[in-house]
Amino acid sequence: MYGTVARMQVTPGKAEELQRFLQVQESTRVLPGMIATYVYQMDANPDEYYLAVIFESKEAYDANASSPEQDQSYHRLRALLASDPEWHDGAITAHFH
Questions:
Q1: In Å, what is the CA distance from 25 to each residue of 22, 29, 44, 70, 93?
Q2: Which residues pair with 48 in a beta bridge?
Q3: What is the pTM of this model?
Q4: Among 46, 54, 63, 93, which residue's Cβ finds the most Cβ atoms within 10 Å?
């Protein structure tokens, strides 16, 4: 498995819009090889979010990341943020249920 974790700082007052954007993305886009997406809103700073996305392989992740649809989605997301997200990509080496 492979994925990314992003730290995002939402523009103040845009949190509800971010939630709507994420819900639409999740319900309308079928991404080949995607396993799950998790979004965390931090207790210490409600404008700070972490996004974790899991794919079945690095190849599936790379295919999504390089698609024109993902580029359009990123620009819509970026419009809701105070700054560029911090992306941290890597192999998932363990998971527990």
A1: 5, 6, 26, 10, 27
A2: 9
A3: 0.90
A4: 54
